[in-house]
Amino acid sequence: MNPRHLVYWLVAAALISVPVVYNQPYHLHVMVLILIWSFAYTSWSVMGRFGLVSLGHGGFMGVGAYVTALLWNHLGLSPWFGIPIALVCAGALALIVAYPCFRFRITGHYFALVTLALSGIVLQVITATRDWTGGSLGYTPERTKGNAIAALQFVEKETWYLIALAVWAAGIAIWYWIDRSMIRYAMEAISEDEDAAAAAGINVTAEKLKITVLSAVMTALAGALYCQYQMFISPDTVSGISVSLQMVFAAVVGGIYVALGPTVGAIITILLAEGLRIGFGTKAVGWDNLVYGVLLVVFIIFLPKGILGSLLERMKSSSKR
Amino acid sequence: MADIFDVYLAEAIISGILLGGVLALLALGLNLIFGVIDVTWICYAELIMLGMYALYYFYSVYGLPMWVAAPACILVVAVLGLLLHYIVIAPLLDAPPINQLLATGGVLFFLQSFATVAFGIDFRNLGIRLPVLALGEMHFSYARLLAFGAALAGMVVVYLFMTRTYIGTAIRAISQDRQIMALMGVDTRRLYLVTSAIGGALAGLAACLLVLQYDVHPFVGLSFGPITFLICVLGGLGNFIGGFVAAFLFAQIISLGGLYSDLEWGYVLAFAFFIVMMFIRPAGLLARRS
Fold this sequence. Notes:
The complex is a heterodimer.
Chain A: H1 3-21, H2 25-48, H3 57-75, H4 79-103, H5 108-128, H6 130-133, H7 148-151, H8 157-179, H9 182-192, H10 194-199, H11 204-230, H12 235-238, H13 241-254, H14 261-280, H15 287-302, H16 306-320
Helix pairs in contact in A: 1-8, 2-8, 2-11, 2-13, 2-14, 3-4, 3-5, 3-11, 4-11, 9-11, 13-14, 13-15, 13-16, 14-15
Chain B: H1 2-37, H2 44-61, H3 66-89, H4 97-119, E1 132-135, E2 138-141, H5 142-164, H6 166-176, H7 178-183, H8 188-213, H9 221-235, H10 240-260, H11 263-280
Antiparallel strand pairs in B: 1-2
Helix pairs in contact in B: 1-5, 1-8, 1-9, 1-10, 2-3, 2-4, 2-8, 2-9, 3-8, 5-6, 5-8, 6-8, 9-10, 9-11, 10-11
């Protein structure tokens, strides 16, 4: 075993043992939130890093959360079955929207705006079907009276920490898997020049679809997880344009070209929001987004590779010298 | 029963046309910016939101008469457009288009929360009750008629400016080829600033018209921002006539959809229509198929 692997194992062991050593509920809660959102942001960057900027991921997250909760409340279907169904729904939605986009070469601005429409649709559908979904007042999955495991509802924060940690780690693993697969080279070629990539024998539409559906399904899982953990969802917290922009924002701040970039973005944004909330209470309403907005603009102008991306690059260039 | 139904139908269709005028005005400013500078202002609706607040403060708080307050509001938003270009867009002109989009997304966050912090989250309105025009059994508010008229007038002024003045001609030329124009000795930076100011002024005009009908709050931009983008994309980004046609189509769908069911379903229908149209005409309604 080389020293590098040893470090990974040590970090993993340290992360797993956190709730055993330290279980202050509020801090655990913040960590669970960070893990869930990190996973969502990582899902976005899986496709975002190849220049496929989607503003529709709020929609996929909403589908994941609402389908799971609706199946549980109305049909009594356990989230163990509900979540896979929700993931399939999100994947199908991604396919329906993305296939024509890629087939007809809708890229760049146009792609971002079409996906923006998608998150708008999901938000409006959730609001319009208020008889089932509670509309903009939000929705609560019913508390189970029976088996907690079957209902995927746990009171202990420790359990949720471990679940979120596992899902987050899976997200990072998927990121690495793509980073080392042929899809990455195909996608990089496509983002440089679609015609040249097609001429080199890459099936442009198929490769883009694969990555989009994967990203959408992962985002929907994040939504379902968030719903099960918070036990309350509203159209504004899991769908819509602001959630989509929030994903893009955190990923860009952390760095979309490195595996842990979105995680760093989630840590920064959530700690900032929580810090402002605790420090200033209700006076801070709006201030966190004010800071986000300025940061996003500053980052895109001066540090387009994000905090972690720029740091790693600097370390690499200094070690070469 | 049938008679009443037809009256409602006619009323919905005419309301749709009136709404279309305002949507067309919204789309015009965004199309202008896109066509000339090749940038999408995601925060366009938030500029309008600030314009609505500006008019509210000028008119209701400081008590200025409307004929002073409205031009002042247009001026304020025009300056905001200028600043947006100068501070955010200009440094990013050579960056990938998606970075420009995201940067204006950051401005969207900033403006929304700025409004929350500065003005609070209360709903505010001008407190003007414009009379309702009764035409037979149909009812239309004067606010809507006024908005429709002003929107059309604004569009005619922009059209005349673009075709009859030297700067307008230069702006149209630059939207056709941005490299050549610089070689021809045109100061592109100045033209971009002028265009941004005009785009801002159009947002300001839209703000004056919208605040007559709707309450203003920090998140009001989210209620008509997305629809404006969809109209521009459906018409073909940068295509003025396409945007105009798309605005009226969208307005009809929303209005008629709202007649048969809730207003949200009107929006859902409009969004779904948009996605279907993207499959059929990906480059916009009026684009020639290659």
